[in-house]
Automatic annotation (TrEMBL):
Keywords: Signal. InterPro entries: Lipocalin-like (IPR024311). Residues 1-21 form the signal peptide. Residues 34-134 form the Lipocalin-like domain. Pfam families: Lipocalin_4. PROSITE patterns: PROKAR_LIPOPROTEIN (PS51257). This is DUF5004 domain-containing protein. The keyword GTP-binding does not apply.
């Protein structure tokens, strides 16, 4: 669950993403394919330590975890993430929303968000498969000489 939370938070806060770039929806205008509301259904992940695969799997989003993003025709977007979980026997809920703008640069989205910490501009690659939006994220960290690499693919269905 921690991995899903971190991934969702990364999407909602619009960290660095890369994804598949094929478009099999038959629409030659990628912005038209992207426009609309999308809801996350599945996350596939692979975790590496010093280049060695240490964990992998697939998580399915359920009623206790919702992640949505809406891309509007005017170049704006908003995203919403909600999670309910049990902590020390009590149900807790977490929600976060983000708004910003996007432009399309080839197969990439350029995402701009602004908050109290300033403006964040991130380039995001995206793709479509079977009518679904797929976003692939790679996050790399290094602590004390150990290299960590986390790869996630989030699959979104159109709502």
């Amino acid at each position: 669950m921690k991995k899903i939370y971190l991934l969702a938070l990364a999407l909602v806060t619009i960290f660095s993403f890369t994804a598949c770039s094929s478009d099999d929806d038959g629409n030659s205008n990628p912005s038209e394919n992207l426009i609309g509301e999308w809801e996350a259904t599945t996350e596939v992940y692979r975790d590496f330590v010093n280049g060695e695969l240490v964990d992998s799997g697939e998580e399915v989003y359920g009623d206790d975890e919702i992640e949505r993003v809406t891309f509007n025709a005017d170049g704006t977007f908003n995203s919403f993430y909600s999670e309910s979980y049990v902590n020390n026997g009590e149900i807790e809920e977490y929600e976060i929303t983000r708004e910003g703008t996007y432009t399309i640069n080839g197969d990439n989205l350029v995402i701009t968000t602004t908050d109290d910490d300033g403006t964040d501009i991130t380039e995001v690659s995206y793709g479509f498969s079977g009518g679904n939006l797929e976003i692939y994220e790679v996050d790399e960290d290094q602590f004390g000489g150990t290299e960590y690499r986390y790869e996630y693919t989030i699959i979104y269905e159109r709502r």
